[in-house]
Amino acid sequence: MKKNSNNFFKKKVLIYGLGKTGLSTYDYLKKKNIVFLYDDFKKILKNSIDYRSILKTNFDYIIISPGIDIHKCKLSKFLKKNFNKIYSDLDVFYSSYKNDCITITGTNGKSTTCQLIYEILLANKYDVRLVGNIGNPILSAKKIKPNTIFVVEASSYQLEYSRVFKSKYSAILNISADHIERHKTLLKYIKAKFKLFKNQSKKSLGFVKKDDLLIRNFLKRKKFNCKIIKVNTNLNNRIFDKINNDYFLTEANKENLLFTLAILQNFRLKKNQILRPIQKFKGLKYRQQIVFKNSKMIIINDSKSTSFSSSLGILKRNEKIYWILGGIFKKGDKFYLPKKFHKNIKAFIFGRNKTFFNNQLKNKIEFENFKNLKDAFKKVLFVSKQNSTHKIILFSPCAASFDSFKNFEERGLYFNRLVKKYLNV
Fold first, then answer.
1. What are phi and psi of 190, to 5 degrees?
2. For 177-197, what is the mean pLDDT?
């Protein structure tokens, strides 16, 4: 197996944060290092270390999980003092293996693009692993061979603290204001995304959305070693004429597909080798998922949506749209939609943060407020029955779910149950 020079060997390591990422890092490092574990909330069994002992210990490396914000955690002062020792699980992986990686980041569409690339490569007999922020920690991968390809979903949280991770193919799908509560400013958020390109070599390829304003402006002020390929997402690619899959009717998923095609051009696959998996692609649950369709309407469950930008692609459809949204809004989020689309949309806002959404939509889009998601959905069904034209019922909350649900999956499942209950499907 091809190896990089493994710096994470016979070292004293602190792993901070013990979710999936932290535990997989521990399993990987424990046999060849002295490893200590710490978590703000969990009581650890063997190898745990208390706060006072941490302050007295000289660690070689500190591996922190993506969810750790060094400005808002119990070890904040310690981490800032030892900032140069902080690394990510991506760095640990890169120090051990030299396998080709296809790494995807961006504000929206990361999971779908990664899943699509993975399924196409898998259908064509590649040894490929789907890892990263999509839910499979990269260090949990087993039986890695020299030709194993990794499709990595990388969040800004992971990239923020990564130092040495490199990827042969990297893509920034898009950038809009997100996670400002963590990164503090939009510029710091953008810099975190572009760390993906920072370590790339001259033989690497970096893919970006051609007409993304924030990406374009940042590229003007910053140079990278990798070759930058600008993906024209406004391109009317002929492949869409050959695709019979409703999942690619939305603007956002067409963009995800165009990035996929641009990256996979480097794998010399024939058109039919790409087209067959695309036709079968069902997407991921709660990400622009079509959960009901008949001659009168389509119901889309986009519970994963946590910002306005993630909903814009569907809202630009030239159809009547009943839009259900609400939850914990993102700091700095703004609603920008060309005026010509406003008349097609009516919004149904639920939850405790209605004032924020009211202020964003007033004088633009007609809206009503509701106590909860159930009441909003029942009203949508009632209103939709009064309109004989074809319509889209879009559940795209543009907000985090934690005011009413544990996560976006629970929120998405609840919405699907409402659909089944009130439509008898």
1. -65, -45
2. 81
